[in-house]
Amino acid sequence: MYLKKEQALSVVIVGTIQFLILSTIAMLFYTGGTRIDETAQGYGFFTNFFSDLGRTTAYSGEGNLISTILFVTTLVGLGLTFLIFFQLIPEIFDRTDEEQKLSNYVSILGTISAFAFIGVALTPANIIPIIHDALVILGFSLTTLVLGILLILTLKDPVFPKFYIVIYSTLIIIILAYGGLFFLIPKIVTLEDLIWRVTMQKIVVYNLLYCFLNQSYGIWRHRIKNEN
What we know:
The protein has helices at residues 5-29, 65-92, 97-122, 129-156, 163-184, 191-227. The chain is mostly helical and 228 residues long. Helix 1 (5-29) packs antiparallel against helix 6.
């Protein structure tokens, strides 16, 4: 069904919020264990990755059905909302031929990244870890490129709020820092290694959600309202 821009942006906002809610509930149902401690109880916010929620069998060795269902549902939902969001970008930044060209790149790269994150949800880390990890890397890499292009578009657009420059720049730095941890801590051996990697993942994900939630609302407020 075709959605008007204001309807689509509302869907994106709701889709982002549902991830925050359902992923939190999934944490409550996680059946325990971490990458370095199978006896750990429940879900550790600073010691369990988001992907642990989607493991069909937790590190503890117990079934993880409820957490898995919630994680798959919420991540697929988030991926679909990203698809909607990225299809809207060419309609938002279209003042010049250059803007249109760049916004089309955002739409293409963003669509691929959205499908990558949907793939992450459908490839449990305990069953097909190679594909799961490859999709995670692809999703975040393309998202970084998308943010870079959005930063350029925001700089060039005389109307779009300039505080998004700070949001995009900060998020790009955070994602690159997270990627750098894989070189500094290529293998998780100690509890400190795990905490560093998990904490940075949480920072990246929650800042990414804030970015898209904030921008979706901003587009709705600054563009859609003015058109009406």
